[in-house]
Amino acid sequence: MNIHQQDPEISHLLNQELLRQRQGLEMIPSENFVSEAVLEALGSIGTNKYSEGYPGKRYYGGCEFVDGIEQIAIDRAKTLFGVTHANVQPYSGSPANLAVYFALLNPSDTVMGMHLFYGGHMTHGLPVNFSGTLYHSVQYQTRKDGYLDLEAMAEQAKTEKPKMIIVGATAYPRVFDWKALKEIADSVGAFLLADISHIAGLIVAGVHPSPAGIADVMTTTTHKTLRGPRGAMILCNGNPSTPLKTVERTKENIPTLIDRAIIPGLQGGPHNHQTAAIAVALKEASTQEFKTYGQQIVKNAKALADRLLEHGFTLVTGGTDNHLILIDLNNKALTGAQAEKALDLAGMTVNKNTIPFDPRRPFDPSGIRLGTPALTSRGMKEEEMKQIGDWINEAVIYWKEEEKLRDLRKRVKDMTDQFPLYPNLQY
Ligand SMILES: Cc1ncc(COP(=O)(O)O)c(C=O)c1O
C-alpha cells in the first residue's frame, strides 16, 4: 500500500509541501534540493537495520552490506575533503558539534565561539544551548562593518584562555581566514574547530578556502550547500586506535576521541538510510558538474547582492563572497519579521535575522538572511537573480498591500514553472 492510500492526511500535506517547494523561490541559505538519487537512498530499507559500532566492528549481526555503505561514505568524505579520518554517523549538525565538545573537553572548560546574533550557531556557546550551560562559554563578535575582528579575537583568547575556539557561521557573508584563526588558537594552545556546515559545498567547489590540514577538527552538516540529506560528518586527520584504556585529550588522539564520543558517548545505531544518502551525495559532489554548481552559487549571490545594492539596500559587509546575503533593513520602512512575511506572501522564502549590533530584539530583528544554494540547484543564473532582486525590492516597497504581493506571487510561479523540480514526484 502506498502512502497515498495508507495515510491520506500525511500524503496530502507532503503534496502541499512539494507544491510549495516547486512554486516558490527558496532562499533560506541553509536549504537545498537533493537529487532524486539522494531521495531514493534516504527513503530506502537502510532504515530497518541496527548497526551500532563502525564498519567491521559492530555490536549486531547482519551488517555486511551496511558496512559497505558506511565504508564508501567514509572513503568518499576523506577524499573529497582531503582528510584521513571521517565519521559519518552524527545524526545532524548540532549532535556533531556536541560530539566534538564531548570528545575534546571537560564540562566547564572554556569555549570561545561566535555569538548567535553576530552570525554564529546556537551550538557555538549560546547560553541556553548545551554549549553555553555545560561549558564556560565566551563569545566573540564582528566589527561594526560586519567582518570578523581577528585582533579582538586574539586579545580575547589571551584573556580567556579557551580550550577550544569554534569558527563557522550561519549568517556570515564573507570567507574565513583559517590560517590566521589557527594562529590565534595555537597562541593559547586551544583546539580549533571549523564548523563548515554552511560552506562545505563551496569548499568542495574551490570557491571558499578549506580548513583541512589547518583546523584540528571540522564538522559539517550534509544538507546545506553540500546538497545531501539531513545529516552531518566530523572530519579530522590521524588514525583512530582502539585501546581499551582511557585516551588522553591530545591532538594525536582526536580521531579516537571523536569516534568514541559518537558511540558509546552520545549515539546508538547509525541511520543507515541517511548514511547511504550521504554516500550518494558525496559521489555527486565529487563531479565537475558539482564544482560548476558551487561556483554558480557564488556568482548568483554576487549578482543578487549587486541588484539589491542598486535598489538602495544596505548589505552587511557591503556584499557577499559566499552563498548568502544579510540585508540590513534599517533604512527601509519595515522590520525583518515584516519583510519575511511580505516575501512569503509573494512566494519568496527567506528568514528574519539579527544583524551585527542590531538595535532591535532577536524575535523581530532588523535583518533578513537569504541565499542562493537552492535557487542555483534549480538551474537559475545571474539573469534570474536580477529579476529576483527587483521582486524583493517590489515586495519591500508594497509590503502592506496584500493584493500586490499576491500578484507578485503569480509572476514568481511563472518563473519557477520554467525550472521544474521533481517533475515525476507525487505522494
Ligand atoms: C554553522 C552551523 N552549525 C551547525 C548547525 C546545526 O545543524 P542541524 O540543524 O543539522 O542540527 C547549523 C544549522 O543551521 C549551522 O548553520
Structure, described:
It is a single chain. This protein is α/β, with parallel strands linked by helices and 427 residues long. It folds into two domains: 3-30 and 288-417, Alpha-Beta Complex (Aspartate Aminotransferase, domain 1); 39-285, Type I PLP-dependent aspartate aminotransferase-like (Major domain) (Aspartate Aminotransferase, domain 2, 3-Layer(aba) Sandwich). It contains 16 helices and 15 strands. It has helices spanning 3-6, 8-23, 36-42, 64-81, 93-104, 130-133, 150-160, 178-187, 200-204, 254-266, 272-285, 288-310, 336-345, 373-377, 382-397, 402-417; strands at 25-26, 53-54, 57-58, 85-87, 110-114, 136-140, 164-167, 191-195, 217-221, 232-236, 314-315, 324-328, 348-349, 351-353, 367-371. Strands 4-10-9-8-7-5-6 form a seven-stranded mixed sheet, sandwiched between helices. A four-stranded antiparallel sheet has the order 11-12-15-14. Helix 6 (130-133) links the parallel strand 5 and strand 6. Helix 3 packs antiparallel against helix 11 (272-285), helix 5 packs across helix 10 and helix 7 packs parallel to helix 8 (178-187). The longest helix is centred in the C-terminal third of the chain and has 23 residues, at 288-310. The radius of gyration is 22 Å and the shape is globular. The two termini are 12 Å apart. Bound molecules: pyridoxal-5'-phosphate (PLP). Pyridoxal-5'-phosphate is lined by residues 30, 92-94, 97, 121, 123, 168-170, 195, 197-198, 221.
